[in-house]
Amino acid sequence: MNCRSEALEVSVEGRQVDEAMLALLHTILLHRSTGKFHYKKEGTYSIGTVGTQDIDCDFIDFSFVRVSSDELDRAIRKAVGEFKDAMGNGMDGMGQISLEFYQKKKSRWPFSDECIPWEVWSIKVNVVNLANEQERQICREKVGEKLGEKVINIVEVINRHEYLPKMPTQSEVDNVFDTSLKDVQPYLYKITFQITDTLGTSVSTTMRRLIKDTLAL
Amino acid sequence: MAAHFDTEYQRLEASYSDSPPGEENLLVHVPDGNKSPWHHIENLDLFFQRVYNLHQKNGFTCMLLGEVFELVQLLFVVGFTVFLANCVDYDILFANKFVNHTDSSKVTLPDAFLPVDVCSASIRDNVTVMFVLMISGVFWLHRLIKFIYNVCCYWEIRSFYTNALKMSMAELPYFTWQEVQARIVEIQKEHQICIHKKELTELDIYHRILRFKNYMVAMVNKSLLPVRFRLPLLGECVFYTRGLKYNFELILFWGPGSLFESEWSLKPQYKRGGNRLELADKLASRILWIGIANLLLCPVVLVWQILYAFFSYTEVIKREPGSLGARCWSLYGRCYLRHFNELDHELMSRLSKGYKASSRYMNCFLSSLLTVVAKNVAFFAGSLLAVLIALTIYDEDVLAVEHVLSSITLLGVCITVCRSFIPDKHLVYCPEQLLRLILAHIHYMPDHWQGNAHRYETRDQFSQLFQYKAVFILEELTSPLVTPFILIFSLRRKSLEIIDFFRNFTVEVVGVGDTCSFAQMDIRQHGHPAWMSEGKTEASIYQQAEDGKTELSLMHFAITNPQWQPPTETTHFISQLKERVQRETTGDRHTLTSLSEPRSLIANFLAGPPSLASLHLGRDGSLTNHGPVGVSDGASALRSLSVSSMRGSCSSTHRSAGHASSASRAMAGSSTDARTASSGSSVWEGQLTSLVLSEYASTEMSIHALYIHELHKQQSGGELSRHTWHRQDSDDSSEGGSGGGNPNPRNLIPRSHTFPISTPGPIPSSNSGPNPDRGTTPGQEVRPLQSNSQRRYGGNTDSVGPGGRVVRSERVPMGGWAEEGHGGRHPDTVPEERSEDDMPPNIHKVT
């Protein structure tokens, strides 16, 4: 709807899933994070610095750059871990993990705050089973190359001058940025995933829509 | 964590906690803040719809009041009915029982009321009444909640108008929608309501407001919806009521489990051709369930409809009995006549302008037998009435005699009804002219009407679009009974076609979402070779819009939204057409002389009597000067010329038809209906230009519509037999799709009734014109003429392809008329990493 959606697709082996996901999610978040804002009295602010660090993958010939914030890393690892558990280990399968950047909008009393997404990255994962070690070696390199391409893709998308939420004033900073981390400040984001069998809208969104529809009759 | 120390990219320790003194001023940012809450709106569809509704309802207060009164009305209808049924002692009212008053002999109304306790007891004892009360209570509560919800939403829209668009609610009625739209387009640059694009276009806004309506129009255009039935006694008839429409929309668009997952996107499985049969089964069973639910709810809805009709129409019938004889545009007519991307108010003003001519046209067909009968009945009824009235005048006690008052009323109604069957002595009718005048406003008409305006078949078909109000009410009343059966027996069989339709005709437009591809108004994809887009269209028959809908819609949209920048081919088409029409208007007399009737008719039409034209021009001179602001010179010249001459010519046709009312008055009337009646204020002055512009636009559109129709008639000559009017439910098309084992897609195109087989039917040749006797001339006479005209146009415009052949084989879409395996070879879009049978929708990147 009123949000950009970008789709990526990768085919990996079972044990590479979490590293591949981490690589992509971290790459996106690297470009969607800023330093902490320090507001001054006159309504101006200065931005703190953000460190980055290189991460080498164990199962893929690939290294990526991420924001050096352990808290952020922990949060993402947790989400990816859940995703991997849901996929089931070592099985063929498809899944989709999506990283959604949103904005909160305060609304009047009877309604709760709305979360309005403005950019959604969905990463489709195909898990393949490989027969022998040689294939694994090839896959290791192949996936590394593919991930490199994806990273370039991401950077290209991000380099386009497209809509980003405007820089907020102090009172509104929580509506745009996730200020809970103490060393970095990404845009508000949400990570969700779907496994192929359950592709389809979740129950809660269906219910919400049903109520809204009946009201809008 | 070893990696942390290996790399040279390290975070500066403690940089986040506090910066060293002196560095504070090095890099200071100023937040731009979200001063306006209007950037990045979540549901733009709803948002634009609400903006439009608020504009149409003339501001917040009017809307609020209207809704409050609706709620009160609802309470009143239910309460009053229950009261009448349970709390009135009718014996007293009919004086069958006497009240024993000591002081006076007068019976008062309160005497007839039962005491409160008796009344409430009788209500409580009556199970059905309690049931009805409960249901209506729930219904009312639902409406109340919805009302409160709406108030909150529209309050937001109100502040959008005042803060972002800078229009106060008080002056909102003086702005036209085009102006509101222009401002929305303008503030998009500043606020970014829609985040996909830097700039919104008019078409985007229309697409969002009319997303589902466009689908409905397209489905009616392609005869997909079962609204036409062949009944044993009545012949062919159209049944399309609000209840039915509601159910269609419920099934397709927003109900639980509908094809759309949100307002703006079709569910992904419906975009793929892979499991269309399964999806069709699913849809069929859903339709079945909704049909059964309708059947179960039918008593409730029926009672409601009857009550509502009773309370809303009895008063009107009593006040002016003739109103039931009056006609209105049927719901089907509104769907059939609607352009793609035409907003409600545009459609309504167009149809209202055509109303007078249409009702005159329908009045042409008074049966002389009925007239004789009616005259005599009126005579007898009139004499009885006269005697009764005379007696009453002499002594009003006559009224007290039983049934005298009621017979006076009945006789009055009877005479009024009879009078409507007696034609006015001083009127002369020319149906052909009238039909042309109607066409100028309604823009669509089946081919075979032209030249057959005097026939009863034409009249009957026109009456499907333009029905009696009484019939309308009757249909609404029977709708709860009929709707479930239509759903269960008729719509269910169409489920596969519906699935195919939504897959084939949905495109994803960036920044808008999934829309009906017809609404893109792309001549290349949906043009019809018989309607000016010969050589430009690549559409297969399945993809062509009927009745020149694509072409006319395109013209209409381009004319109503002059700021709109269409894609290049489309621009080419529009400018070419405009140029042609303009050439006609500037009057190259020497080229026109040799032409056949229709073109010269337009020439006549546009030239008009010079005296009249100049007179009108003189009177409207000031307006014409205001008019062409911001429009290119050529267009403005055309516009002013065509308007003035149109006025003159319209009145001339009227005069020739012997009617008193003049077209210029109709035009002036329409500007009052554009709610500018309150003149004299300064606001009025400011709005003048845009109003005049929109007036010009509608006239220009009329001319273009007439021109396109004439050209179509010329081009298709005697061979046009592909009228949608007689199209049947083409069941064979779906069979061809599902069971077809024939690898050649060309053979799979069914020879259904829709196929243009050359049957020289009762369609007139192009030069028969208003002369009805030549209506049955066979095609021979036409052919040389047709080739002549083709050569002529070919000489003028180089883009008309030789012979105008249309390449079909490649672009035949899957489903419907092509077989399944064909989809893999679809040339357009098969992105990587997709299986062969996953046929994606046509994804258009429209930027």
TrEMBL record, chain A:
GO terms for biological process: autophagosome assembly. Its main location: other. Keywords: Autophagy. It is found in: Preautophagosomal structure. One of its GO terms (molecular function) is protein kinase binding. GO terms for cellular component: Atg1/ULK1 kinase complex; phagophore assembly site. Signal peptide: none annotated. It comes from the Eukaryota. InterPro entries: ATG101 (IPR012445). Belongs to the ATG101 family. PANTHER family: AUTOPHAGY-RELATED PROTEIN 101 (PTHR13292). This is Autophagy-related protein 101. It comes from Oncorhynchus kisutch. The lineage of its organism: Eukaryota, Metazoa, Chordata, Craniata, Vertebrata. The gene is ATG101.
From TrEMBL, chain B:
One of its GO terms (cellular component) is phagophore assembly site membrane. Residues 720-730, 819-833 have a biased composition (Basic and acidic residues). InterPro entries: Autophagy-rel_prot_9. Residues 673-684, 785-799 have a biased composition (Polar residues). It is found in: Cytoplasmic vesicle, Autophagosome membrane; Endoplasmic reticulum membrane; Golgi apparatus, trans-Golgi network membrane; Late endosome membrane. It comes from the Eukaryota. The keyword Transmembrane applies. Belongs to the ATG9 family. Phospholipid scramblase involved in autophagy by mediating autophagosomal membrane expansion. Cycles between the preautophagosomal structure/phagophore assembly site (PAS) and the cytoplasmic vesicle pool and supplies membrane for the growing autophagosome. Lipid scramblase activity plays a key role in preautophagosomal structure/phagophore assembly by distributing the phospholipids that arrive through ATG2 (ATG2A or ATG2B) from the cytoplasmic to the luminal leaflet of the bilayer, thereby driving autophagosomal membrane expansion. Phospholipid scramblase involved in autophagy. Cycles between the preautophagosomal structure/phagophore assembly site (PAS) and the cytoplasmic vesicle pool and supplies membrane for the growing autophagosome. Lipid scramblase activity plays a key role in preautophagosomal structure/phagophore assembly by distributing the phospholipids that arrive through ATG2 from the cytoplasmic to the luminal leaflet of the bilayer, thereby driving autophagosomal membrane expansion. This is Autophagy-related protein 9. It comes from Oncorhynchus kisutch. The gene is ATG9A.
